[in-house]
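Lab meeting, item 3. Inverse folding demo.
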């Protein structure tokens, strides 16, 4: 897609969504924190040895530690990380969009209200809600601008960390109907699913081209080993030697297609899929070794939006987007809302306006981050995804 990041807010539904005088939140002034760095590849150098081609079932000849498939290592590392750390904000490891400005969550909340009206009023679900900041801002906005939506909804949160569940309960109170460990535990039926920087943290498998075939990467003693690919999905037959193919899980797309509803994903990655190693880790707002001790850093990978959309379409869903985050948020009224906040809070006006620019500017988060909506084929284009 051509760069449309400077597109002004639309004057129709999307452009007017954030115009109302929603009250300021106490911590509204965004701190001057760097957004989560998203290099194309921050993976540690490969450390392949004589055991690289060994079977994953056989103990490594040097360490006597069984190689662990990369996706399983990532899942274990994520569980340890979120169980024992406070990753968000200036004192943590990274800063996400809801922590930068309340305008982000307000725009997303009003987007959800319109989706709710269009699809039969199901409950919203947030995946990976962090400290509950996005949902708190969304609920405050809809309480004043879509009170019927606010009165009717009860939120479902997919969160595995007991510590973060406590934080979310303190912030969201009785708005939460239930917490769930995974998608499979959600009630059957349509839902409005919202996920900001959730897909990037899901485990991936990595395959590397070796000698005309494909090997799969495993982790042993802080380095990669390789084993012949087993139970692999379809992989490009003509990839060059040493090329890396990442494979993401498709369960989210299939769930939306089979159960109905809409899912809004905002995350980072290329619009079109391809070869490449995007595995990275973040700690203390800087790069870290993704194969280091589990729990010491936030491990992520770029989202393959093309594969996500293809999985959704194959299961019967429609795909709206992906489009650059900057375009999407501008159409929802991000800059209008930031200007209102600046007028309401003149002491921090520059911070409110700067936060909006960081979210939308192509040199910051506006281009690499994308928004995509998976939905029932009968739904019309939702706010932000209409043709200009």
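The presenter then showed the designed sequence:
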């Amino acid at each position: 897609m051509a760069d449309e990041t400077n597109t002004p807010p639309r004057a129709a539904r999307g452009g007017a969504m954030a115009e109302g005088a929603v009250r300021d939140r106490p911590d509204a002034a965004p701190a001057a924190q760097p957004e989560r760095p998203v290099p194309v590849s921050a993976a540690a150098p490969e450390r392949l040895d004589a055991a690289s081609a060994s079977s994953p079932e056989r103990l490594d000849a040097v360490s006597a530690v069984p190689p662990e498939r990369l996706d399983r290592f990532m899942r274990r590392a994520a569980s340890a990380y979120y169980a024992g750390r406070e990753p968000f904000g200036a004192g943590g490891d990274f800063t996400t969009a809801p922590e930068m400005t309340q305008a982000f969550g307000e725009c997303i909340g009003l987007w959800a209200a319109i989706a709710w009206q269009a699809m039969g009023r199901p409950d919203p679900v947030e995946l990976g809600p962090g400290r509950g900041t996005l949902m708190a801002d969304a609920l405050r906005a809809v309480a004043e601008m879509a009170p019927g939506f606010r009165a009717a909804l009860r939120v479902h949160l997919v969160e595995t960390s007991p510590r973060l569940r406590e934080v979310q309960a303190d912030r969201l109170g009785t708005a939460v109907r239930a917490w769930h460990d995974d998608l499979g535990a959600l009630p059957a039926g349509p839902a409005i699913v919202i996920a900001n920087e959730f897909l990037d943290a899901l485990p991936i498998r990595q395959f590397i081209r070796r000698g005309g075939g494909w090997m799969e990467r495993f982790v042993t003693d802080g380095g990669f080993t390789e084993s012949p690919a087993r139970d692999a999905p379809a992989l490009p037959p003509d990839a060059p030697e040493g090329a890396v193919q990442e494979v993401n899980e498709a369960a989210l797309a299939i769930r939306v297609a089979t159960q109905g509803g809409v899912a809004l994903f905002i995350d980072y990655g290329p619009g079109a899929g391809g070869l490449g190693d995007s595995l990275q880790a973040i700690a203390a707002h800087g790069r870290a070794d993704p194969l280091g001790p589990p729990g010491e850093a936030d491990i992520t990978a770029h989202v393959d939006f093309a594969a996500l959309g293809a999985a959704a379409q194959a299961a019967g869903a429609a795909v709206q987007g992906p489009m650059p985050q900057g375009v999407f948020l501008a159409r929802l009224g991000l800059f209008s809302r930031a200007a209102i906040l600046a007028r309401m809070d003149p002491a921090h006006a520059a911070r409110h306006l700067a936060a909006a620019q960081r979210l939308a500017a192509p040199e910051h988060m506006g281009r690499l981050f994308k928004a995509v909506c998976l939905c029932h084929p009968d739904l019309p284009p939702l706010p932000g995804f209409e043709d200009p």
